[in-house]
Design a protein that fits this description.
69% helix; Alpha-Beta Plaits; mainly alpha; Alpha-lytic protease prodomain-like; three-stranded mixed β-sheet; 2 domains; 305 residues; transmembrane; Cation_efflux_TMD_sf; single chain
């Protein structure tokens, strides 16, 4: 019986998380300052578009804050009570970000209904100036988080929020200009609704990715049936069972399987071949593989799950 473990992915993920902490900390500070600015001016001018943008800025602040806290927690050492560490905190933070974005979008759409019937007068110039400053802040944070969004689901959640808010700031600028130049007050709730609707599809994709990990679905792009067949086709392997493939956190795919071998087979050779297959063909570096003779495999068949 043999067990194979590769720690490359875990080490890479831990190293990457260290790189993100400083960028997330700077992003958090910048967004917090400009959220306060947008919220104050939005209430003073009664601008739904600016309040919508401030709402998204708040989710940016909370999202980046949760991302920062989750990555910091995930870097804590593995112990007897946390055998997988706290990597799932990143996924929970991403899901919480998605819930926040759904909530903000719902509030803006609800608030806009009344404003379409009786659009209040709003001051276009202060809205334009505030949106311009908010746009600048978003662009800075956008640049800080862009590289990390490709590797971490958690950072991607914060990045998507900032992306949506950047688009929102552009919309608020346009709405402020239309209101200021033409006195058309319906522009404000229209822009507010557009920002709310823009973020929904991206939020849904983020939530779906987080839920896939939390329910331990096989990673997208990995065909478990094909993986099982390729393991079974290895020399000296008679049968494969108890195959599980899941994602611990972004970029950390994990697998386990039992390989029943033929009489006289080389345990070490089978284990090495299986590890190489999972690493090279499926990029799974952390795999726990049990190599067992046929008589031991019967014990697995007696289990109820």
């Amino acid at each position: 019986m043999g067990h194979g473990h590769g720690h490359g992915s875990a080490a890479d993920a831990a190293s990457a998380s260290g790189r993100y902490v400083t960028r997330l900390a700077w992003s958090f500070g910048i967004l917090l300052v400009f959220f306060v600015l947008e919220a104050v001016v939005g209430f003073m001018t009664s601008s739904l578009a600016l309040l919508s943008d401030a709402g998204h800025m708040l989710t940016d602040v909370l999202g980046v804050g949760m991302a920062l806290a989750a990555i910091t927690a995930a870097r804590s050492s593995v112990g007897d009570k946390r055998t997988f560490g706290l990597y799932r905190m990143e996924v929970l933070a991403a899901l919480a970000n998605a819930v926040l974005l759904f909530g903000v979008a719902g509030y803006i759409l609800y608030e806009a209904i009344g404003r379409f019937r009786e659009p209040p007068e709003v001051a276009g110039l202060p809205i334009m100036l505030t949106a311009a400053v908010g746009l600048l802040a978003n662009l800075v944070v956008f640049a800080l988080l862009r590289s990390g969004s490709k590797e971490s689901l958690n950072v991607r959640g914060a990045y998507l929020e900032v992306l949506a808010d950047t688009i929102g700031s552009v919309g608020v600028l346009i709405g402020g200009f239309v209101t200021w130049a033409f006195g058309w007050y319906l522009a404000d709730p229209i822009i507010g609704v557009a920002v709310g609707l823009f973020v929904l599809p991206r939020t849904w994709r983020l939530a779906r990715q987080a839920l896939r990990i939390l329910v331990q679905q096989a990673p997208e792009g990995i065909d478990v049936t094909e993986l099982r067949a390729e393991l079974a086709a290895l020399p000296s392997v008679a049968e494969v069972h108890d195959v599980h493939v899941w994602t611990l956190t972004s970029g950390m795919e994990v697998a386990s399987a039992h390989l029943t071998i033929r009489t006289g087979a080389d345990h070490g050779g089978v284990l090495t071949a299986a590890q190489r297959l999972l690493s090279e063909r499926y990029e799974i570096e952390h795999a726990t593989l049990q190599v067992e003779p046929a008589e031991c495999a019967r014990r697995c068949q007696e289990l109820t799950w």
